[in-house]
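tool_call predict_complex ligand=adenosine-5'-triphosphate
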Amino acid sequence: MSEHKDFLRTIVEKDLKTGKYKNIITRFPPEPNGFPHIGHAKSIAINFGIARDYNGHCNLRMDDTNPTTEDTKYVEALKDAVEWLGFEWKGDVRYTSDYFDKLYAWAIELVKMGKAYVDSLDEETMREYRGTVTEAGKRSKYAHRSAEENLDLLERMKNGEFKDGEHVLRAKIDMSAANMKMRDPLLYRIRHAHHYRAGDKWAIYPMYDFGHCLSDYIEGVTHSICTLEFENNRDIYDWVIDTLGLEPPRPYQHEFARLGINYTVMSKRKLLELVEKNYVNGWDDPRLPTIAGLRRRGYTPESILNFCDTIGIAKANSTVDVAQLEFCIRDDLNTKVPRVMCVLDPLKVTIENFVGSEELDASYYPDDVPKEGSRKIPFSKEIYIEREDFSQNPPKGYFRLTPDQPVRLKHAYIITCKEVKKDERGNITEIIAEYNPESKSGSDTSGIKVKSAIQWVDATSAKKVEVRLYDRLYSCENPDGLDDLNPDSLKIIKDALIEPAVVAEKPDVRFQFEREGYFYADPIDYTDANPVFNKIVGLKDSYAK
Ligand code: ATP
Ligand code: MG
Ligand code: MG
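tool_result ok
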C-alpha cells in the first residue's frame, strides 16, 4: 500500500471503523465499447487496490447498456487488461445487461409510486423545458399521466411498439432543482438495436443514472468510485436508492480526478477514430495509450502500477506529463534487463591490423546493477558502428570517433581512425581503422585516454533486425484533433544490426540497447527470420527542458 493514504482509503477506513460496512466491495465498471487505456489502469489500480488492501473484493462489471457501441472483443480486451495488471475479480465477470429484468422491475415500482413517468415530448422541447442554471425548468404535460397509463406505455415501450425517441421514462424529481441533473432525469430510452449479449430481447435500455447505482446495489458494492464528471450525478444515485427504499447496506458514490496525460488522447471515442481510420495499426499500436498498446510497446505492469501510484489520487483534474510515465518504465527496467549492442544506422569499420577472430566476454549488466550474467561477443576485422558515432568535422564537445580522436569499442578495444572512404557523392562509406592490442577492456595497459565507449557489432556474426522507433503520437501537448497528429510518430528501421546473442533469445524479452534505450521483442511480429524490436523508451528524457 502507498505510504501516504489517499482520501478514498481514508473514507474506506472510517467506514470500516464505524461499522458502516463489514466488508469492502468495489467494482471496475467499464463500458465494453473500446480497448481500455491508461486512465482505466488508474481506475483498476484504485478499485482493485482498495479491495486488496482492505481484504475485500472487486468485481469486474461490463456496464453494457448501450447496444449500438458494445462488443465481445472489448469485453475480452478489458478482462485481459485487468489480468495483465495483476488483479483478479471475484467470481464471474458481471454484466449490467444481466440485471435488465431486475432494473425493469424497479422501474415499474417507481412508476407505481408516482416517482417516474413516461414522457413523450420531442427531444428539443424536452431540452428547452429543462431550463438553465439560472432559470427553473418546466415540467412536461405528460408528467400528469396516471400510473396505469404509464405502466401500459412502459410495457409497450419494452415490447418494441414505439420508435426510437418516441417516449422516455423519466424520474419525477424537481424541475427547478439547482442541480440540473435532478430535473426529471431520464431513466430509460427506446433503442431498437441488437445487443451483443441480450440479443433482441429489449427495445428499451436503462440510462447510466438508473442502471449504475442499482447494479452497484445488486452486487453489494460499498464504495462506488468514479471520476469527477459524475459529481452532479451523485444526487440521482442517492435518489434512486433512497426512493426505492432499498435495504442497507447500500453503496455510496465517491469521485476522483480523471487521469489525463499530455501529447495523447484518452477518450475511447477518439481512440476508436484513430483505429478505424487507420491512423494507427490497431488498438494495440505501441503509440496508443491503451493498455494493449503500452503492453505491446514493452511497458511492464509494474511500471504502470507504479506510475498510477506516483501520481496519487486527486480531487481536481490535471494533466500529467508523459515524461513521468516514461520515467517509471525506465526506472523499472534499469535494474532488470540485460544490456546488449545494436547498431541502428551501420557504418562499416575495417580494422586493418586485426587478424583472425576473437570471442570477448561481456557482462550483461553494469556494475551498479546487482545482477549476474554475461555472453560472448565475436570480434573480427570488420565491424559496424553507429554512423553518428563518427564525425569528420566534429562539433565542440564531440567525444566519439574522429580522424584525430580514438574511441573505445564497448567491451573490446580502442580504435583509431586511419582513413575515411567516400562514394562519388561524398557520403562516408567506410572507415579504415587500427586497434591497439593492449587496450582490451578489463586488461587495458595501452595508456590511451578516450572520452567515450561506443556500441558496435561484428560484421560476420551480426544479425539483421527490424527496429521500430516510436515518438509521441501528437505533436502538441493538448491535442485537439487529427491535425495535431505527429507525422513522425513511427520510424521503421529495416536493417539494424544486432549482436548474435540477442536473436538467439526467445521473444517476449526486453533489453537495453547500449546508448539507445530500452527495447522489447515485438510479441506479435517477431520471428526468427525477421526479428522485430519496439523501442519502449530512450535512456533519458530527450524532451527535458
Ligand atoms: P472514455 O471517455 O475514455 O470512454 P469512460 O469513462 O467512458 O472513458 P468507462 O468504460 O465508462 O470509460 O470507464 C470505466 C471506468 O474507468 C469508470 O469508472 C471511469 O470513471 C474510469 N475511467 C475512465 N477513464 C478514466 C481516466 N482517464 N482516468 C481515471 N479513470 C478513468
Ligand atoms: Mg462510461
Ligand atoms: Mg466513454
